[in-house]
Amino acid sequence: MYTKEDPTTLMKTQSNQLVCKERYGSDPISRQYIRSEYGKIVLLETNAKFDTVWHFLRDVFLPQGYPDSVSEDYLEYQLWDTVQAFASSITGTLAAEAILKGYGVGNKEAAILGATMTWMLKEGTGMLGRILFTWAQGMSLDCDAKRWRLFADILNDIAICLEIISPLFASNFVLVICTAGLFKSIVGVAGGATRAALTQHQARRDNMADVSAKDGSQETLVNLAALMCGLIIMPVVSGNANLVWFLFFLLTSVHIFANYRAVCCVVMETVNQARLQIMVKEWLCNSRQLDVKSVNYKEPVLFAMRNKFKIKLGVSMKSLTCCGRNVESIRGLYISEKYILDLDFHKKEINIILSKDCTAEDQIKACFHAHVLNQVNNLIPQWQSYDSIDTELDDLVDSFTKEIGEEVLEKSYSYIRQNYDKFLAKLKRKGWITTRTQLGPDEWRADWNTT
Q1: pTM (2 decimals)?
Q2: Over the stretch 306-347, which tens digit does the pLDDT of each residue have?
Q3: Residue 54's pLDDT is what?
Q4: Residue among 220, 222, 188, 242 at smallest CA distance from 90
Q5: Coil, strand or helix: which one is 74?
Q6: Which of the chain's ends, N or C, has fewer CB atoms near its CB within 10 Å?
Q7: Is the pLDDT of residue 381 over 60?
Q8: Calpha distance 27→69 (Å, rounded)
Q9: Does position 377 have pLDDT exceeding 60, yes or no?
């Protein structure tokens, strides 16, 4: 047992023996346990848990163990996310008034049934949109979470703009409001899915639930603050179109800028196609490997990176057989690998067939191979200006120029065998995670040993 006594009195007693010290996470909160001259274990509490307002707010709105329990980019992202959420909430309030006018609120001639039917059509369109968008883009929301997060917020601004102008199109109000509802349904799917992906990235102690719950608390507080501001703003701007549009464009600009800064500050350690392409280009042009932060800062968050050849990972063997390719010859080239890569000059595709036993590192190797082909092809026009490019690739450039498919595969695979292990070793040293990826493979898997 221990008792709690006056620390000042205890410190004056020279015979006290320190038994234990403890700290509350990374907080400055600490306790000491001392054995007094009478043999009792006495608690010497140097400070209280809620000795400042900051400690209280941190416990209420930040994950337990912050900052050690979250990623380094957590605070910066949440600050920008707070700014964008506030701006979006205010513009949403402006749109709410316009929608109510469109439904007929304040109009004695408006029919309740008509407003109800319009609302039902809007909701039904949104439900259908959610299903179709999830089916079309579900996998890519994980692979390109930052880009889809920004896309969702820009689309949300477009939807709010449509809601604000909807009363101006009385004869087409249903069409305009249903289009806005469709856009907002896509925003809900893309925003929710990418928020989950970002939460997984931020949670460093398997504490996704806590990180997500505290994010919800932060968002609720922001929405509450926006609601209070809305109560002050709406009586001033109501009926004044110029003020409404001024506020809309001002807050929308803040919203987009804050979202852009938020996604740009996220530093993900997993490999996706865009980040791998950036690394491969740097590897080929400058013979060096970029660290995690440098690659993430170079990653485009608005438009997808384009290549002459589209990379299709995890395709069926049918992609080879249907175009008359010599499957046995191509398979023989990759006899020791857990993937088969083929280059289709006609369709401008790089098809990668994965083994049923392939790992995340095998997928990285296959995509590294594909991006080497793409980057070499992209660099052909200015090939001679890159003095640091490996001379081993000169023969590959000649093969590409002549569009000799089999020779391109052979030359490129020779380069992969000699360089991939060095690339992977440096990848790991720079802090990249290679046990899982966000490369977006399809589900086809082949068994080479079937007889």
Answers
A1: 0.86
A2: 888 999 999 999 888 776 677 888 888 898 899 999 998 888
A3: 76
A4: 222
A5: helix
A6: C
A7: yes
A8: 13
A9: yes
Can you read off the two tokens belonging to residue 89? 């909430």
Contact 415, 392 (CB under 8 A): yes
State phi, psi for 269 to the nearest 5 degrees.
-95, -5
Q: Find tokens 């280009």 and name the residue.
A: 281
Q: How would DSSP label each residue in 255-276?
A: HHHHHHHHHHT----S-BHHHH
Token digits of residue 28: 């400055």
Q: Is the dihedral of CA 68, 72, 74, 80 positive or negative?
A: positive
Which of 70, 82, 234, 99 lies closest to 165 in space, CA to CA?
99
Assign 311 to helix, strand or coil. Answer: strand
Tokens of 209: 């639930």
Bridge partner residues of 70 (DSSP): 203
Residue 59 — very low, low, confident or very high, per pLDDT cuts 50/70/90?
confident
CA dist., res. 356 & res. 339, Å (int): 9
Residue 363 near residue 441 (C-beta atoms within 8 A): yes
- By C-alpha distance, which of 181, 183, 191, 187 is closest to 215? 191
Q: In sequence order, which residues have a C-beta less than 8 Å from that of residue 104 and are 6 or more positions away?
A: 110, 111, 114, 115
Nearest 10 degrees: Cα torsion 407, 410, 413, 414: -110
Residue 285: partners with Cβ closer than 8 Å, 6 or more residues away: 379, 386, 388, 389
Q: Which range (18-32, 71-85, 136-150, 415-429) has the least confidence?
A: 18-32
